[in-house]
Write a structure and sequence with these properties.
The protein is of the alpha/beta class. It is built from 24 helices and 18 strands. The radius of gyration is 25 Å and the shape is globular.
Length: about 600
């Protein structure tokens, strides 16, 4: 066996190198990542020691990114008209199939982004769009916490801040790997993840739990693991939101925010994860932020349109050669200050490659075309972006196969096996911040009241409205009492909740506080704060569980027991119930500072 390994290393160096050579010389036999047609025939031609090693090595051969097919890129580019080239730079939102088909046929757009969808429906529609397009389409989605972030039927994984609490790069890699598996089955080639933003502003209304935490070194370490997890398993990763969206209290979906950090802090905090990612990985894409970054630009301008940010910092200084996406161009950080036509021209001139979700794709195309005609943007500059886009399309095998098998989606998405993997990840994310009265683990003999309160159930950015926790608690102990409160918290509900809490041995209060696009805050509303205060007053033996924004615990210094689960993913609600009854250990550490008494790194390890 040792001789076989040495011969393999001599001939190929590593398994990825072998796969690359295999793909280059045998394109008619091997069609990664979507097909194994002819693979058995090809294996017969390999040396026996290679076959032996391939049977033993657990490398995802049919999933890794492919080497760039430069010949296909040059040939395809050479056959394109200027209109077709500019079309490649446009990625609208796929909201309705008839409209999207029109954009494919008339505007020759290069790809689509989509949001909430049902698994088989979206895969079927994406196939239809692919068949209608002359050049294969690049499909993107914000799968920040797995395909289940937006796709019904897929697996919902712990969000970044929960993973940050684990301090475990391997968990992050595994989460990204599972995301890649499900994304590819749907026909998605790019995930707009990971988030490299450092959440060093607790008031940030849109990043918050989407960040790995407040420490730039931790964010960098886990971001690297996520990028490898996606790309080593066939999914193009996107580092976002460049050059950093953490230190702002403004939601760029509504208006232009500002990064006020000084030059030194900007370099050592906001920019550090990006510097590490671009130095240590070949991340396929970067997404810009609709923020004015004062350490870079003296005049007010979004980073997305800034030549200093994109051209000088990202392209020249950091030497980044991959795809640069704008963030969605329908966001207020752009539309409040610029027309779509003006913004489209400025962002391409600044160095971006793909205009994401322009409200009217035809407007963007016409504006860029006019800019080329006027000599403001050269056709060679357009060619540079098109080459990057086409190169990425070959890396996910779109030039060979652009269609997914919709009949087999159920074999890859939302399976019991995938849920078990997600749960094994979630188990290591829970943080027991404090337990002053030693209420945990709960005794089955105690009279436990489970109250759930939710805020902003509509338009949540990343979290679903799922509240399964009461049922999960009943599986642990059928005698628990439960009360699910409405978002409005009517006076009658509050009165009933307080009375029930007064008579319970222990109260478990589950708070589902979600990030809402355009919401402007992730604070707990005053009405909900009042409820918590009332319950703590009548029953100090209360356990507060944050299934979302962890900073809410800082509002209650008298709180005895506080748990951070960071998100309402199904698996997190499941494991919190188990942990409360001692069937799962608490091992997570705070990735952010909540208050003077609840600081970064705090966390009680249970036995």
């Amino acid at each position: 066996m040792t001789k076989s390994i040495n011969r393999f290393r001599r001939d190929f160096g590593s398994l990825p190198c072998f796969v690359n050579e295999l793909q280059k010389s045998n394109k008619n036999h091997v069609d990664f990542p979507n097909s194994r047609k002819g693979f058995g025939k090809f294996l017969k031609s390999l040396p026996s020691y290679v076959i032996l090693l391939l049977s033993l090595l657990p490398y995802p051969m049919n999933a890794q990114l492919l080497p760039v097919d430069s010949a296909w890129v040059e040939q395809t580019l050479g056959q394109m008209t200027l209109d077709e080239k500019i079309g490649q730079l446009i990625m609208p939102a796929h909201l309705e199939i008839t409209q999207s088909l029109e954009w494919v046929r008339l505007l020759k757009v290069g790809g689509f982004w989509f949001g909430k969808a049902e698994a088989k429906t979206i895969a079927t529609e994406l196939n239809e769009l692919q068949k209608a397009s002359k050049v294969p389409l690049l499909i993107a989605a914000d799968f920040e916490k797995g395909a289940g972030t937006h796709v019904d039927g897929a697996t919902d994984l712990p969000i970044n801040m929960a993973l940050g609490a684990s301090r475990n790069s391997d968990l992050v890699y595994r989460a990204a790997k599972l995301t890649a598996k499900e994304a590819l089955a749907l026909g998605v080639h790019v995930t707009f993840a990971p988030v490299l933003d450092v959440n060093n502003n607790p008031k940030n209304p849109i990043i918050n739990i989407r960040s790995f935490g407040e420490d730039p070194k931790l964010v960098a370490e886990l971001s690297l693991a996520a990028i490898r997890g996606y790309e080593e398993n066939g999914l193009l990763a996107t580092a976002k939101h460049f050059p950093g969206h953490g230190n702002t209290s403004v939601d760029s979906h509504s208006k232009l925010g500002m990064i006020e950090s000084g030059a030194a802090d900007f370099e050592s905090v906001e920019l550090l994860p990006y510097k590490e990612a671009l130095k240590k990985t070949q991340v396929s894409a970067v997404m810009t932020a609709h923020l004015w970054v004062r350490p870079i630009d003296f005049d007010t301008i979004p980073a997305t349109l800034s030549s200093n940010t994109i051209g000088q910092l990202l392209r020249n200084r950091l030497q980044y050669t991959g795809i640069v996406f704008t963030d969605a161009m329908v966001m207020g950080g752009i539309t409040s200050l610029y027309s779509l036509a003006d913004a489209s021209v400025k962002t391409i001139h600044a160095g971006c490659d793909i205009i994401l979700w322009p409200g009217n794709p035809a407007t963007s195309i016409e504006a860029v075309k006019n800019a080329v005609a006027a000599g403001f943007i050269s056709e060679e500059r357009i060619n540079q972006s098109v080459k990057r886009i086409l190169r990425a399309k070959t890396q996910v095998g779109l030039h060979n196969n652009r269609i997914v098998d919709t009949e087999k989606i159920g074999q890859h998405l939302g399976t019991e096996e995938n849920y078990k993997e997600a749960k094994s990840i979630a188990v290591q994310c829970l943080t027991l911040v404090r337990d002053d009265l030693q209420l945990l683990p709960l005794s089955p003999s105690k009279k436990v009241l489970v109250l759930t309160m939710s805020t902003r159930t509509r338009n949540a950015a990343m979290s679903r409205t799922l509240v399964s926790f009461p049922a999960d608690m009943k599986r642990q102990n059928t005698s628990v009492d439960t009360l699910v409160l409405s978002e409005s918290l009517s006076p009658i509900e509050v009165k009933d909740a307080v009375e029930l809490a007064r008579n319970a041995d222990v109260v478990v209060l589950a708070a589902f506080v979600r990030i809402v696009i355009g919401g402007g805050t992730v604070e707990l509303p005053e009405s909900h704060k009042g409820l918590v205060e009332s319950i703590l007053k009548v029953n100090p033996k209360t356990v507060l569980v944050a299934f979302g924004n962890p900073y809410i615990g800082g509002s209650f210094p008298q709180l005895s027991t506080y748990i951070c689960a960071y998100d309402n993913a199904r698996v997190l609600q499941d494991v919190v119930a188990e942990a409360l009854y001692g069937n799962v250990k608490f091992t997570g550490k705070l990735p952010v500072t909540i208050s003077e008494k609840m600081r970064f790194g705090d966390g009680i390890m249970t036995k």
